[in-house]
Model the fold of this input.
Amino acid sequence: MSVEEVTNTFELTLWVDTCSKHFNLDWNDQDIEDTVYYLNREFFKLD
Done:
């Protein structure tokens, strides 16, 4: 899934989780949730 295909916060969460794994970030669920919140608030404006 590319960022252009993200249409809801669930998909955004999957995308952030996939990116965190791809870049070998040691992120926990809270890190992912915070990042999704920020990205949605500032850029995506979903749901």
